[in-house]
Every structure is written in structure tokens, then in C-alpha cells.
Amino acid sequence: MRYLVATILFMSCNLSVHAQIYKWIDENGKTQYADQPPLSGQIRNEQRLRINSAPVPVTFSGKADEEDPERLKTLSDEKSEYEKRRQERQQKAIEKKTTLAENKQKCIDAQSRLRLFLESPRLRMPDGEGGLAYVDDNVREQKINEANQVVTTYCK
């Protein structure tokens, strides 16, 4: 209940305030600002400044005031640029996740191959004619070195 009362009080205090500000140059050439119009004897150049403390109101049709169509174009351009950047970031994140998953799988495969080469005292490999042949220690060491290189590449 306290939160409801606090919310209602907050929303009632959040009313927009419109003030009229006057700007003029006095007889000494100094620029003066005030919330009341200057006396007529002191004015050389007077301007009324329109200052809104609240943003431009938007109607339910989704259109802002018709006073500034350039601002609407700018906002729509900014929104489209933002959407484009957001989609690019999402695409990069998806690509990064895919690359990390592929590298993880390659790391697991390379570690299992390395374990196979290290734990097998006699290594058999296909001979190219449909059979298996035992390989000598030089080929085994070469395969271990290749597997170590792959492990260091993908297992970071």
C-alpha cells in the first residue's frame, strides 16, 4: 500500500512545467534574461524564448507534433541505424558462439587423438590398401607432435 501511495505522489509531481523566458539587450548592450517582460524603456531588441521542460508530446497515433518534421526524420534514421547496429552485434555474437563450439569440439578430438598416440605402445594405422600396418616410433612421434600442435591451437 505504501508503494502505491508513493507511486501516485511521484507521478503527480512529474507534471511538465512550461515557462516563458524573455531575452533582450538593454541600453548598455548587455543581454538580459528574465521570466517577466522587460520595461519598454529598456529594450533595444526583445525575443521570446520557447522553453519546454518536458519532451515533445506524442499523440496516440504515434506521431509527434507537426512543428518539426526534420526531427521525426532524424529520429527514424537514428532508430534504423540503431537496429542495424544491434543486428550486427547479434550476428557477431552468434558467429563467436559457433566458432567457440567448433574449437571446443576440435580440442576434444585432438586431445583424444593425442591420448591414443601416447597410450598405445604399438600404433596401427591404415596402410591404404584396406588393411592395417604397425608404424615405427618415428611416425608415432610425428603423430604425437602433430596432435600437440592441434591441441595448442584449439585448446586455449
What is the helix fraction of residues, given as a range? Answer: 40-55%
| Cα-atom radius of gyration | 38 Å
How does the helix and strand content classify structurally? alpha+beta
Largest pleated sheet: 3 strands, antiparallel
Topology, number of strands:
5
Largest sheet: spatial strand order: 2-1-3
Count every helix, treating DSSP H or I runs of 4 or more residues as helices. Answer: 3
Mean pLDDT metric: 78
Overall geometry comes to rod-shaped
Structure explained in plain terms:
The strands form two sheets. A three-stranded antiparallel beta sheet has the order 2-1-3, with no helix packed on it. It is of the alpha+beta class. Helix 2 runs antiparallel to helix 3 (137-154). The protein has three helices and five strands. The chain is rod-shaped and about 110 Å long. Among the domains are: 17-56, no CATH class; 99-154, no CATH class.
